[in-house]
Hints:
This protein is of the alpha+beta class. The chain folds into four domains: 1-139, Beta Polymerase, domain 2; 147-230, Orthogonal Bundle (Hydrophobic Seed Protein), CATH 1.10.110.30; 237-386, Orthogonal Bundle (Hypothetical protein af1432); 392-448, no CATH class. It is 45% helix and 10% strand. It has helices spanning 7-14, 25-32, 104-109, 133-139, 155-167, 173-181, 191-202, 205-208, 213-223, 232-235, 251-261, 268-274, 279-286, 292-306, 311-323, 334-343, 348-360, 367-370, 375-386, 399-404, 409-425, 432-440, and strands spanning 21-23, 39-43, 56-62, 67-72, 75-81, 83-86, 97-100, 119-121, 126-128, 141-142, 170-171.
Amino acid sequence: MKINLDEKSAKFISSLGDNVYVVGGYVRNSLCGYKCTDIDIAGPMPALALSLPPRTTMTMVNHRMGTAQIIYDGVKYEYTPFRVEEYGEGGEHTPIRVSFTTDLYADASRRDFCCNAIYYDVKRDEIIDPLGGVRDVEMKVLRGCNKHVFESDGLRLLRLVRLAAELDFKIEGETARAAKAMSNNLADITAERKRVELDKILHADLVNGAKNAQYRGLRLLKQLDLWKNLIPELVECDGMAQPEQYHKYDVLEHTFRTVLAAQPLHNVRLAALLHDVGKAYCFKQFGNFYGHEKSSAIAARIILNRLRYPNDVIDQVVRLCGAHMYDMRGDAREAKIRVFVSKNYDILDKLTALIRADKIATGMVTQEEAAAPHRFELVREKMIQEGAPILKKSLKISGRDLVDMGFESEAISAALEAMWKECIINPKNNNVEFLQKMAQRLPKTPAELPKKKQD
């Protein structure tokens, strides 16, 4: 078996000294015939003892682990000296003790999966395979490097699922049983690390082209009992039946299939994962699913905050979840659709992608049927052709104009909103003369504004 390493990298790594190896994902992916990216290298000596050629920079990334980033001729490498690790109780990702060694086998044994513990000796063009990882690659199987692989590092539970999905590998039986037995160790992992792995699982099909990889990853999280320490709200959706005239699957399976059908647009698959998460709450409270989109939006905000997602991601996913049922029957008046389209103009393509995926995942609609132009898209196109002021700044009157007409504070915003809605519905009215006449009929001070209805 041949490792595909470009000549420049091979020459550089060979210059670092004897017994410096390429290891990890680069070797594994090369053996699989997949795209190789990051080059991780390892050896028995500390990073500072390497023989670096001229014009090479080295930065210590983690002094405790001995990890260094090396840049040579514009290419980044990560070097780690052989080491052994000791972890405390629970699944916290950080070892309590690290010691360095010259023993390659000891270094291999502390790694996660045997397919990641294959070493390539660049100088000798030779593969060193202390744990039988090459055969695992040939058999397309993930096998733990030792029986304690998940006892010390709960993050490996998510890595197991992600790699199985991305690589299209099976999980060896004993490794799967060990993962399920140690599933509670995921509770000790930080929200940020969980978030990163979840995002990768949701887009696992894009890494190596493994068909349905994202769906398989979600199913594996269920089979290994990991959702309870990732998004426990989804566990409540498992086995929850839905009306047979509309749905073929229970809520959780429908959710997974929505992710499967969803396009990889930014935040769409995350919204697909959470779009029905409020159904369990609705059913417990009311005995039905009516209004579940509102409950799902509230739950999505709680979940995504807990997983430390950026605020812009949270806001957009919440909007998508909350809007995915709007005009589901297709009987809303066009005037309302026009306002809805304008208010959601920035996310409309993502929203229609979510709605299509949701329909396909019912099991009642084919991809071809779901691909038909959505009403929101048709109305948007019509509005564009008519020159409707989809954005408020396209109105032919401004807030400054209203100030000159005697409008004050909140009354300005209220007037612009009213005029904008009028021109969204009747684009021909977006002219100064009409809007000035309309403004004369609108409240000019906060005291004149209608009182808001109390909840």
